[in-house]
Amino acid sequence: MDQRTLHHVDSLVKNRVFRSRSEAIQKALEEKLSRLKKSRLAEECDKLSRREEQAFAEIGFEADTKEWPPY
Questions:
Q1: End-to-end CA distance of the chain
Q2: What global pTM score does this model have?
Q3: Domain range for residue 13?
Q4: What CA–CA distance (Å, rounded) separates 41 from 70?
Q5: Residue 44 has what pLDDT?
Q6: Per-residue pLDDT tens for 15-43?
Q7: Three-class HEC string of the chain
Q8: Domain total in the chain
């Protein structure tokens, strides 16, 4: 890690944002991994066909409406 980054982390520790360098690095890594996971989900969702998903939703909706009582 470069000195500039370490200095910044040390400032956060000094200002009691984190208890230690280790905690700061752990939190940063957890946050980054969480963001990567979310972006992976978004990438997978982009692969879905809107038309196919809409058709699946309408099939289920159509079956449900047959069971609804008339008003």
A1: 68
A2: 0.54
A3: 3-67
A4: 40
A5: 85
A6: 999 999 999 999 999 999 988 888 888 88
A7: CCHHHHHHHHHHHHCCCCCCHHHHHHHHHHHHHHHHHHHHHHHHHHCCCHHHHHHHHHHHHHHHHHHCCCC
A8: 1
